[in-house]
Amino acid sequence: MKIRIEKEKDKKRKGQKKMKAIVFKEPGCAVLTEKEIPEPQPGFVRVRVKAAAICATDLEVMDGNIPANYPIIPGHEWSGIVDAAGSEEDRSWIGKRVVGSNDVVCLKCEACRSGNWRYCSEFEEIGFKRDGAYAEYIVAPAYGLCELPEQVSFVHGALCEPLGVALGTLEKAGAACGDTLVIIGACSIGLCILAAAKAMGMREIVVAASTKKRLGIAEEMGAVRTIATEEQDLVEEMKRLRPNGSHVVIDATGMERCIQQSLKLAEKGGTVALAGYGRGKTMGIRIDDIHINNLRVIGAGNNWNQHQKAVDMMAEGLVDIEHFATHKIRLEDYEKGLELARKRPEGFLKAVFVNE
Ligand SMILES: [Zn+2]
Ligand SMILES: [Zn+2]
């Protein structure tokens, strides 16, 4: 899809408080514009955004492949400082460094009360249904905030969201210390899974990706082996390396060929976790790969409120995410950021908007 990038004129009127924001007006159209600074409703706070990472999912919103409420400010990987609260009892958050959940829910229904916010019938996600963090301010629910300790930078704080996806995926997969693991996809989720898996003591972690571009980073982060699938057949190579298969296999690509392969890499009775967005596609898999081998195939599509755990692990230095934020940019440079995220040149992993 050809992407239209417009620049909107500064419509600031005297005395009116405005903020810079990047808006996806409709699929295929991104603008840098000025918007009114949002006021937090009761139960919500306003956060001055310090860092907001560009996620591949945001490009799917830009391309119209994910349902979103256009016009929308995208961005669900963020950190900042609380500067206003919608209710008296939340004023204690003001001035605190935070990250937060993107889940806007009722907190009253059965799903919410059992902790399964994503199953709430009123569920709305920031960055998709509600305005996100590609801006100077964001409004987020106070109930989902986590304080960011001083030793974790704002840029790393923004990465609590994808790291939380990794933690949620490993938890859903029932991954355990000492288990062997194959990760397909060296995207930021794939590499966050690697960082989290190393921290929890999984072993012999193999990372596969189509090209070598990011496999060097995976090796630096402690992958025992990397496989570029345009050069080597993943299934054949793994059969040679690990004839009985791996305890856990995680697909972070959402691509048909990779999902088909992931089912052939797990040991009998092993687990395959699907952690990649399938872009709404119907795919063909060989059912007997699951049936005959008694595989557990599980879906792991979000972070399930793992922000606090992600923050705590970062604060303790347990996860290696030093390599992640390869490009720090300003909101004004959004064209460059979006293009980098789309083209993923050699050495690129993540672009992060940083506000002064
Ligand atoms: Zn994301
Ligand atoms: Zn609910």
UniProtKB/TrEMBL annotation:
Residues 42-150 form the Alcohol dehydrogenase-like N-terminal domain. Keywords: Oxidoreductase. Coiled coil: none annotated. InterPro entries: ADH-like_C (IPR013149), ADH-like_N (IPR013154), GroES-like_sf (IPR011032), NAD(P)-bd_dom_sf (IPR036291), Zn_alcohol_dh (IPR050129). GO terms for molecular function: oxidoreductase activity. Residues 189-315 form the Alcohol dehydrogenase-like C-terminal domain. The keyword Oxidoreductase applies. Pfam families: ADH_N, ADH_zinc_N. PANTHER family: L-THREONINE 3-DEHYDROGENASE. This is Chlorophyll synthesis pathway protein BchC.
